[in-house]
Amino acid sequence: MTPPRSRSFAASSPQGAKQNLGRPGVLLEKFVSMGEADLPAVTAAEQRIHRFPWTLGNFHDSLLAGHEAWLQRESGELLAFAVMMGAVDESHLLNISVVPERQRSGLGRALLEFLCDQARQGGMVRMLLEVRAANQNAIAFYQHFAFVEIGRRRGYYPDSTGREDAIVMSKKL
After folding, report:
1. Using one digit for the tens of pLDDT, what is the confidence trace for 37-73?
2. How far apart (Å, rounded) are the C-alpha atoms in residues 54 and 58?
3. 142 in catalytic set
4. How many helices and strands in the chain, by DSSP H and E?
5. Which candidate in 44, 101, 129, 134 could, as Cys together with 93 as Cys, close a disulfide (CB 3.0–4.6 Å)?
6. CB 28 within 8 A of CB 11
7. How many other C-beta atoms can be found within 10 angstroms of the C-beta atom of residue 76?
8. How is residue 122 annotated by DSSP?
């Protein structure tokens, strides 16, 4: 099943052209809607990226619920993906991930910019997300995009020693 919006978009590029992000001579494929056929690769990447990854069922349920889910590939290889849901006039970023070997290459920035644009085009006025309280790199990344902390969810994430708090962040679109 494909999410309701099936547009494709090249990372911050004019006229939807492919773009080079950090690797000379390599062009990235456009952001495309994630579908059922993508889930095995997405789940495998998710397991490499996170200590407590989403399951195949989590991604499947998000697609069935109609959440927007996007991915980006290079020469067929999965590089990045994201899932967000809309509720009234707010977008909730549920998952944004870049494969480890391509982190800090600009892909996350391009993907988050794309997601904010998609949310604005869908009439959303604010984006929300949760991030692990201990994930200082991710917090700084979101702050760079003008996300601000608006609260905490105690014990929100599983952790090897029990539970970890989530910082709730918001950005006006």
Report:
1. 999 999 999 999 999 999 999 999 999 999 999 999 9
2. 6
3. yes
4. 4, 7
5. 129
6. yes
7. 7
8. T
With a CB cutoff of 8 Å and minimum separation 6, the contacts of 91 are 84, 85, 115, 119, 122, 124, 126, 127, 128, 173
Indicate if 130 belongs to the active site.
yes
Tokens of 84: 């967000």
The sign of the dihedral angle between the CA atoms of 154, 156, 158, 159 is: negative
Residue pair 1/36 in contact (Cβ under 8 Å)? The answer is yes
- pTM for this one? 0.83
- Amino acid 147 reads F
For the record, the structure tokens of 121 come out as 């085009």
Using CA atoms, how far residue 122 sits from 44, 62, 111, 161, 167, in Å, is 30, 18, 16, 40, 25
Residue indicated by tokens 């492919």: 18
3-state secondary structure 103-114: CCCCHHHHHHHH
Q: 51: which DSSP letter? A: S
3-state secondary structure of 60: helix
Considering 142, 149, 156, 164, which one is annotated as catalytic?
142
The single residue of 101, 130, 156, 164 carrying the catalytic annotation is: 130
